[in-house]
Amino acid sequence: MNFIQLQAYAGFWTGAVVMISLHNMFLSFFLYKTRQTKVSNIIKIIFNSANALRFTAVWGTYMTPKVATLLQCTSLQYIAAIGSVLTRVSLTAFLLWRLKQVHNGKIDSWIGTTLFIIRSGLGIAQLGFQRPSTFSNTA
User: Fold this and answer.
1) Where do transmembrane segments lie in this chain (predicted)?
2) Nearest to residue 47, comparing CAs of 81, 93, 7, 11?
3) Rg (the chain; Cα; Å)
4) Biggest CA-to-CA distance, the chain
5) CA dihedral 51, 53, 55, 59 (to 10 degrees)
6) Would you say residue 139 lies in a domain?
């Protein structure tokens, strides 16, 4: 597979994921207006917008030209990392919310909240310690 075919393949699949995420986000907006359970729709909106942000940044990373500045590369990598952390944290929040709706136990609520706070803290720490960089083929 040559470079052009690889770019087309990656662009197609990341574009498809972005379109699916945007469709689900708009659907969650409409359901937010009509449904009773607003918390799950808000979490779905956050999840889908973060997923669209992440895959848009990934698409931008794949489609950057061979001569790109360090600022362009690092900004796309930071945006992708922020989208990835937001996607994972919102998915965790959504699953904990659904678990609370199914079984509303006091101990489960405390354990879930503690694990969610740990997960969020580690995600934010990951963003703080991440140092995106570029590499060169001139060696």
Assistant:
1) 12-33, 45-64, 76-97
2) 93
3) 18
4) 60
5) 170
6) no
pLDDT band at 50 (very low <50, low <70, confident <90, very high): very high
For residue 73, the SS3 value is helix
> CA 74: distance to chain centroid?
17
Domain encompassing residue 80: 3-129
Give pTM, 2 decimals.
0.78
Q: Give CA–CA dist 106/52, Å, rounded.
A: 35
Q: What is the pLDDT of residues 69-115, one digit of tens each?
A: 778 888 888 898 899 999 989 998 888 888 888 877 777 778 888 88
106-132 pLDDT, tens digit each: 777 788 888 889 988 888 888 888 776
Q: Which of 77, 80, 79, 108 is nearest to 95 (CA)?
A: 108
Residue 67 lies in a domain: yes
Question: Based on the structure, what is the number of domains in the chain?
Answer: 1
Token pair, residue 133, equals 């960089």
